Amino acid sequence: MATSWKTKINGKTYTAKMVNGAVEYDPPMPADQLAREKQNMAGMAEARRAPGCVTDSTFFAGVGTLSEQFRGEERQLSQMVANAKANGYTPANGDFYQEGLADYPGDPKAFVKSRGEVRERCLERGVPCHGSVNVSEHEVAARPERVKKTKLADDIVNRKVMDIKKAGGHVKSESAIRQEIVEKHGSK
User: Fold this and answer.
1) Cα(122)–Cα(102) distance, rounded to whole angstroms?
2) Which of 15, 25, 143, 144 is least surrounded by Cβ atoms within 10 Å, i.e. has the fewest?
3) What is the chain's percent helix, strand, coil content, to nearest 5?
4) What whole-number distance in Å separates Cα of residue 173 and Cα of residue 53?
5) What ranges in the chain are assigned the alpha helix state H?
6) CA 119, 120, 123 angle in degrees (round to 5)?
7) Which residue from 125, 120, 133 is spatially nearest to 55, judged by alpha carbons?
8) What percent of the chain is predicted at pLDDT more than 70?
């Protein structure tokens, strides 16, 4: 008896079976998809285990109800629920509160029920993420507030001030020179 199984890829169901030591798919799988499938199977064989299942059930496994998420911090939970209600959302006990999606404690956008909602919120906020929910840098709009502003280190500024002084010919005060260096070499 031939071993067969079904697999669903990109919404299309394929029946796979072993024929003479090779896997055949019905309907035939497109060549590019077949190459990826072979690579995935080889990776599983090498790792000696199947990939983890990433569903809403596994994503929220162990999270529990809102009251379980905030066990011992009932006052904080009450304040968050009050904030959410004041902004037009009444959290259900089965909601998952994802603090990283909140602009403020109790932000209605931070109460989610699925991985799809987490993805939507990341796209709305322009925040890439990787893991059980994936949003690439290319999928999110560039947002100025995401640009990390770093202070130009004092030792760099001091070194450049000394270089300018050694070169001579400067007529500006040291504070003006420092400001010029920060404007030229610091975060934009």
Assistant:
1) 11
2) 144
3) 45, 15, 40
4) 64
5) 31-47, 56-59, 66-69, 74-86, 115-125, 154-167, 174-185
6) 85
7) 133
8) 91
User: What Å distances lie between residue 47 and 13, 23, 40, CA to CA?
Assistant: 25, 20, 11
Kindly list the strands in the beta sheet with 4-9, ordered across the sheet, starting from the edge strand earlier in the chain: 4-9, 12-19, 22-26
Between CA 99 and CA 75 the distance in angstroms is 16
Q: What was the pLDDT predicted at 142?
A: 63
For the record, the structure tokens of 59 come out as 């994503």
Quick check: helix, strand or coil at residue 156?
helix
**According to the model, what pLDDT value does residue 180 have?**
85
Under a CB-based contact definition with an 8 Å cutoff, are residues 101 and 128 in contact? no
Assess whether pLDDT exceeds 60 at residue 166: yes
The three-point CA angle 140-102-68 to 5° equals 125
The token pair at 55 is: 């569903």
Distance of alpha carbon 109 from alpha carbon 97, whole angstroms: 9
